[in-house]
């Protein structure tokens, strides 16, 4: 081995060792920065609370719009089938809007039957139209107005949770989440009357997140409700 070959060999080893040292240094710097810059997921919420949207509970005058499918019966009549809960709050004279494209037929409930339709498990009602029906449609969509005489606590169905068919909601109390079992009354599928479990002035959590549990800290991101 001559001197030139030996020098080249030594130079290669030195350069290689230097490159490896530089790479390891860069890795240590990156790891250190990441460890410092990224807080733990759990720790972040422990410090600041789980961000949630909320719904403010108040008693209010409410009129539900129950969606129905109706069929024409005669020149000025419609028939529909309703569930038992809707039957309980349906009275003769309740206003109904029946939609026929751009046209609306207005009328009132003219008959309510407690006789169960065995084929569907629903109850028949009859609607009298103010105007003669001028359509060959076999069925129509309609809105049945169900007003409540006194102010009620009404909440959106979307904020109600359920375990074993037992409904509950999350309240905010002293900056913490609290689970409250609720008893619901009439619902049109979008909102429901609350019979017990919450009162006017309560702040309910609207956000659906698995991070909620009793006494977990929360912070309000946005509030809705009248």
User: What about the largest sheet?
Assistant: 6 strands, antiparallel, barrel
Secondary-structure element sequence? HHEEEEHEEEEEEEEEEEE
CATH architecture level-2 label of the largest domain: Beta Barrel
Query: Helical content, roughly?
Result: 10-25%
End-to-end separation: 92 Å
* Beta-strand segment tally: 16
SS class: alpha+beta
Globally, the shape reads: elongated
Strand content: 35-45%
Task: Report on this structure.
The structure is a single chain. This protein is of the alpha+beta class and 226 residues long. The chain folds into 3 domains: 3-36; 47-61 and 150-220, conserved putative lor/sdh protein from methanococcus maripaludis s2 fold; 63-147, Beta Barrel (Elongation Factor Tu (Ef-tu), domain 3), CATH 2.40.30. 21% of the residues lie in helices and 44% in strands. It is built from 3 helices and 16 strands. It has helices at residues 3-37, 41-48, 84-88, and strands at residues 50-56, 59-60, 63-72, 77-82, 95-100, 103-112, 123-129, 140-147, 152-156, 161-163, 166-173, 176-181, 183-187, 191-196, 203-205, 218-224. The chain has a 6-stranded antiparallel barrel with strand order 3-4-7-6-5-8. A 4-stranded antiparallel β-sheet has the order 2-9-14-13, with no helix packed on it. Strand 5 and strand 6 (103-112) form a beta hairpin. The chain is elongated and about 65 Å long. The chain crosses the membrane at residues 6-25. Keywords: Membrane, Transmembrane, Transmembrane helix. GO terms for molecular function: efflux transmembrane transporter activity. This is HlyD family secretion protein.
